[in-house]
Each structure stands twice: as C-alpha cells, then as structure tokens.
Amino acid sequence: MDDFALRELPEAPLARDQLRVRNHWLSVDPYMRGRMNDAKSYTASFQLGQPMTGGAIGEVIESHMDGFAPGDLILHMGGWRDGGVIGLDMSPFKLPADSLAGGMPPQTFLHNMGLTGGTAWIGLLRVAAAKAGDTVFVSAAAGAVGSAVVQIAKAREMIVIGSAGGAEKCAWISELGADAVVDYKAGPVLDGLAAALDSLGKPGIDIYFDNVGGEHLDAAFACANDFARFAICGMIDVYNDGHPQQMHHLIRTIPARIRMEGFIYTDQFFDCMEEFYADMGGLIASGAVTMRETVHHGLEAAPDAFLGLFAGANIGKMLVRL
Ligand code: NDP
C-alpha cells in the first residue's frame, strides 16, 4: 500500500483536442500488475510518480475536442484519477447512446461490453475457435473474464467446467450455467477436473481458457482431448512473485496435438469491434450474459481493490465508484 500516493494537481487549461472529465468509474485489472514491472512487454511500464493509466468511465465537463460535448459519458484510458484533462492519447470513446438509452449501466463498458467481455469473446471464439458441443474448462471462472467465458460458451451450446476458489464462487458459476465446477481451494485442480469430467461423462476437454497458469494449466494438459485448443489469456498465479511453474503434463502437447496461443485483447479488438458489440449487446439484452460487480468507493480505495484481485476478493468485475 505504501507504494501508492494520492496527489492533488492544479487544474490545467484545456488545449485543442482535449476534454475535461469527471470520472464516475475506474477499472481495476490484474494486467496492471505486469505494468509495474520494468520488463519488456506488449505495453509500456508505468512510470514512477505518474498516475496509473487504465480504463475509466467519466462525464465530459468541458470539451475542446470535435464530437464531444459536456454531459457525454465516455470511456477513456486516463485511469485512476477523480478527473482532469483527457487527450487523444487516452483514447476517449463516447458511450453509444442507444445502449445507455436501453438501460445499460455505463460501467458495463469496463466489463462485459469492454476489456473483460471482449477478452472472453475474442479468446474463446477467435483464438480457441470454440464451437457448440466442445467441452470448455475455464479458470478464475467467477472473475470478470472467466464469468463472461462461462456465459458466452453456454449461449453457444458448449459444455462448461469452471474453476474458482471457494463454495460461494462455485455456486455462482453454477448459477451462470456451468455444467460442473472445480473448487481449486478444496483439493488438487487435477482431481477436481477429473471428477468434473467423470460427472459429465466426458473423456477430456477440447478448450482450456487460461486465466491462472500453474496447477490449472498443468491439469488442463493432463485432461486435454486430441487437438484441444488452449487460449492463454492470463497467469495470475505468478504475477506477484513470478515463481517457476512446475508442469508435469506438458509433454501431452505432442501426442494430443494441443494448440496453445497467447493473445492480447487490443491486438484483435479493433478488427472485430462491431461484431463484438452486436453479439455481446444481444447476449446482454437477452439476459444470456450478466455480471456481478465488486465495488469499492472513492479514489483512495483503488489500491485496496487492486490488491484484492490477487486474494480473490472479487466476484465478477472489480470496480471503483467515484
Ligand atoms: P478477475 O476478475 O478474474 O480477478 C482475478 C481472480 O483471479 C481473483 O478473483 C481470483 O479468484 C483469481 N486468482 C487470484 N490469484 C489466483 C491464484 N494464485 N490461483 C488461482 N486463481 C487466482 O480478473 P480479470 O477477469 O480482469 O482477469 C482474469 C485474467 O485475464 C487475468 O489473468 C488477467 O491478467 C487476464 N487478462 C488478459 C487479457 C489479455 O488481453 N490477454 C485482458 C484482460 C485480462 P479466485 O477466488 O477464484 O482465486
């Protein structure tokens, strides 16, 4: 917690192509942990003394940018701040008026209609090319990405096994429609996954959607059907200490001809944005995809919310409300 500081900054005048924004919602995401490392990655590291950038929903107070007017609700990448000046480099995006008029809460664009829902949709349908009838295993299934994977897969008539820590989370995954659950805190993941497959009368998994790495990934290797596809989305198990991951069943990639692909949401999102909004918007409108939110209040609560991700303190999407 001592690594975070709250700073008051003077209000700057607006230049051309800038907006003054008051934030309402901040996104809190595990990928932010990776940006705290000084290591080569797909995106730049956070800089000491600079604000944490990331997804936020705010209201335009003053606009010097074409296409934006006071009162507009926007998604932007300005991150953890009460508000301030947002330029084009923060990718401001006006929330679609029809979605808002239809009653969609604006913060949905931080989860199911945004980063986490998009990651679930891209990873499952494009990267893993999952199809009806496939048996899908997803880890961190009670989290933001994982719960979207469960529901998209069920809407596409797949058989879903979700893993999460604890009875309350597992009960929620079942409510979302998962056919079987693994409580990884109650015993070895491999035993839980094997028991889930037995209960479903399935020989193995066709798809693994990895949010966790480590023991979950190893269990997925052990239980993979021939030609299984693994969408490697995240490995939260090692974000904090980077301990070596022991794989006992990696060799199964060869006889089972497993295809594994790591992916980054932003590489693909702009290609399929319209299709994603139409499909996900429809799934949300029909009630096939829902979301729980774990909400902390006030900017000063953001570090606590962030640390909570690594302790499993969230069900659904972790957010800060301002
Ligand atoms: P979640 O809402 O899933 O929150 C993180 C969850 O991870 C916690 O609730 C916790 O649930 C679980 N967790 C934490 N530590 C461990 C551990 N050691 N072992 C097993 N589970 C653990 O976060 P998101 O949905 O935002 O992100 C999920 C994953 O997707 C992350 O790995 C993230 O980095 C990745 N991601 C990747 C993107 C990409 O473009 N590739 C984009 C967005 C996210 P529990 O109580 O069940 O342990």
UniProtKB/TrEMBL annotation:
**Sorted UniProt keywords:** Oxidoreductase
Q: Which SUPFAM superfamilies match?
A: GroES-like, NAD(P)-binding Rossmann-fold domains
Q: Name one GO molecular function term.
A: oxidoreductase activity, acting on the CH-CH group of donors, NAD or NADP as acceptor
| InterPro entries documented for this protein | ADH-like_C, ADH_N_2, ER, GroES-like_sf, MDR_fam, NAD(P)-bd_dom_sf
The UniProt record lists the Enoyl reductase (ER) domain at 1-320
PANTHER family (alphabetical): PROSTAGLANDIN REDUCTASE, PROSTAGLANDIN REDUCTASE 1
What is this protein's record name? Enoyl reductase (ER) domain-containing protein
